[in-house]
UniProtKB/TrEMBL annotation:
It comes from Striga asiatica. Keywords: Hydrolase. The keyword Hydrolase applies. One of its GO terms (molecular function) is thiolester hydrolase activity. It holds the Pfam family Palm_thioest. This is Alpha/beta-Hydrolases superfamily protein. InterPro entries: AB_hydrolase_fold.
Amino acid sequence: MEIGVHGLAQNHEFRADHVQNENDTVVKPKESALFGYYADGDTKQILPLQETKPYLEDWIGLKILHKSGRLKFITVTGGHVKISDSDIKKHVVPYLREKPRWMWLGREPPKVGKSI
């Protein structure tokens, strides 16, 4: 397996789930929680992830994850880091019931980058 973020994205067990709070007033723009961002030179138009340069050029492996179905976007009601009980039951509890994706069994985790 390749080292670094692209190598991690190519690991078929790795996935990335991201949550956006619909009424977030702290994160600007709130869409950046899901990697959306302002269009170049524009502070009003917000591009979804799939239209941003980092995605199109696959700077950090998000395109690999997305194309393979391992990048999930979740939008919940509520403000900054405030998630309702019903959203926790719907989006968090299922992960707690899953078999752990990484079973170290006394081994070191795989190296995915160099320490600074």
